[in-house]
Amino acid sequence: MVLIIGAGVGGGIVGMELAKANISVTIIEKGPFCDVKDSYKYYDKVDDYLDLSKTICVGGSSVVAAGNGVRILEKELANYGVDISKELDEVEKLINIHEMDDSHFGEGTKKFINSSKSIGLPVVKMPKFIREEDCTQCGKCAWGCPNNAKWSSQDFVKIAIENGAKLLDNTEVTKIIQEKGFVKGVEVKSLDNSTKFIESDTVILAAGAVDSAIILQNSNIKAGEKLWMDPFVTVGGVLKDINYNTEVTMNALIIGKNFVLTPHYSVLLNENINENMITNIDNENLKVDKIKDKDILSIMVKIPDDNHGKIINGEIIKENSIKDIRFIAEGAATAGAILVEAGVDPKTIVSTHLRGAHPGGTAPIDAIVDKNLETEYKGLFVSDASVIPEAPGAPPILAILALAKRLSKYLIEKYN
């Protein structure tokens, strides 16, 4: 039996592929199997000072992803002797990566595209895994799609179950059990805090870069020392009745040398904009109408990170470098220029605080895992963003899927 720890992007596809190949599979997930529309309830508060976007449920963070399918890291991984070009082609077809129809581009996104072109910036449509026929353009991608209009790893987990795989949700794996360098199984903890041992000589760890590192550390593997994540801010201002908050988010993209830009609405902007406007008023008797969500046009600024973070005793230690601040400032200035060109009142432009997304690098190829994603313990593999050695500065979903697809082929051949 193969044990898969985690039902997110890296675990779901392996479970599906192995189950379809008639290999006995059990998927263990820390969170519940919830409806996609309820997945916002399972955002994980990682740290008091670090605002990191991740969810704990079947499907992992894919259920609250914006549906972006950017092809990345092909050349970088090839430098490590890992070729995923064929697997990238396969997963693009598998989850139907495409540019959305013009009918699903709202006024805010159109202004982003036209204003970017107007000031000479190279803008393209974002590749997506959203089905137009099911998408009502409600702007709730990051909360869990109420219409289940986009692919998520839940789709693969369901197929795995249909093909005989077992799912243990609400069950936390605490460590890997090994003997003389060979995997024997895992220790798990249930909701009632009882622990038990599940036996297996093949374990695939796909709990995400943070939790996978903690499990590896609990199992005496020195992971978690090269953490990266993609720092980002959202910059926005007032453009009355633009209604961008109800559009398909991140439906266009600018790839710069040091940053990427994409239209993105954040609820954090509303309060900041209102406070900024009040601060700019000289006349105390002047009444200002409260700015509403529908009046905000905003842009995400995301930068590639360095591998300077660590996970120590279950805590994330992460600092931003001077380079990070410079790249964020450069991207924010460019975003501001686009917003002004689009008609946003420059006096209202503000930014969110710095946040983080897409953590990875905690069990990198050529350090913690080999080219087949196997650790020093025979039979223990890692299949999530942990193994990616360099920060992409963009959503790594396609790269994770391709790496997991490649691992599936290796395991199927090994079992056969």
TrEMBL record:
Domain of life from the UniProt record: Archaea
Keywords for the protein's UniProt record, in alphabetical order: FAD, Flavoprotein, Oxidoreductase
Key word Flavoprotein present: yes
Keyword Repeat appears in the UniProt entry: no
Domain annotation 4Fe-4S ferredoxin-type: ranges: 126-155
GO molecular function, one term: flavin adenine dinucleotide binding
InterPro entries documented for this protein: 4Fe4S_Fe-S-bd (IPR017896), 4Fe4S_Fe_S_CS (IPR017900), FAD/NAD-bd_sf (IPR036188), GMC_OxRdtase_N (IPR000172), GMC_OxRtase_C (IPR007867)
Residues annotated as signal peptide: none
Similarity annotation: Belongs to the GMC oxidoreductase family.
Record-given protein name: 4Fe-4S ferredoxin-type domain-containing protein
